[in-house]
Amino acid sequence: MKILAVSDTVVDKLYSPRVGEYFRGVDLVLGCGDLPYEYLEFLVSSLNVPLLYVPGNHDPAYNEHNPSARAEGCENLDRRVARVKGLTVAGLGGCHRYQPGRANQYSQPEMYARAAALLPALLWQRLRSGARTDILIAHSPPRGIHDDDDLPHHGFSAFLPLLRLARPRYFLHGHTLVYKSNLEPPVTQVGPTTVVNISPYRLIEVAPHVR
Ligand SMILES: [Zn+2]
Asked: Using one digit for the tens of pLDDT, what is the confidence trace for 86-127?
């Protein structure tokens, strides 16, 4: 299973009429936020495979008052669990709150509540299928892993117990840019989970399901 994950920055090589040629054989696209919806729509129509994403802090709120704030043909995975191409994927969008009243920004306690709301569906999926969650996608990293000292780039503490309980195979995120102040490698192993900073894109080969 070949996965193209994208985040934060539009890349010319992907926003190209030749993207289908460059990324032949990709089975699934995952978006970790802060990308124009036209870019996601271009990728889903060019590659013709499912695309699931979470919103970042620069994306508009998607709710009953703003139903058009979505990428057409793609699936918003925020606070949801989905089965796609034999994989269980789940998502939690947003970043640490740094401006009051803005969409897709959350305090640490708010993200604890969002993670707690997602957990029963993850555990139920595991009971039903007998397998761990394959991929959890988020916009922000966990606290202390690939995050930064400035408030907008603080990682979420809630993701640490979520990783311990749900034990996903992969945790993919964006939001913190590798070239800024993150000097550590953008891939970190946390228990059974491989945490990967996607910005701006990455191809990931996911082995078939493991129990
Ligand atoms: Zn961001």
From this structure: 999 999 999 999 999 889 999 999 999 999 999 999 999 888
**Is 51 within 8 Å of 41 (Cβ atoms)?**
no
Ligand 1 center–CA 77 separation, angstroms: 16
The CATH number of the domain covering residues in 2-205: 3.60.21.10
Per-residue pLDDT of 13-22, as tens digits, reads 999 999 999 9
| Rounded (5°) CA angle 28-57-14 | 35
How many C-beta atoms lie closer than 10 Å to residue 125's C-beta?
Answer: 20
Question: 58 C-alpha to center of ligand 1: Å?
Answer: 6
Instruction: Give the per-residue pLDDT at 211.
Output: 53
pLDDT at 130: 84
Compute, in angstroms, the gap from residue 29 CA to the centroid of ligand 1.
Answer: 19
Q: Do 96 and 154 contact (CB within 8 A), yes or no?
A: yes
Ligand 1 centre distance from Cα of residue 101 (Å): 16
Report the chain's C-alpha Rg in angstroms: 16
* 59 alpha carbon – ligand 1 mean position (Å): 9
Band (pLDDT 50/70/90 cuts) for residue 181 is low
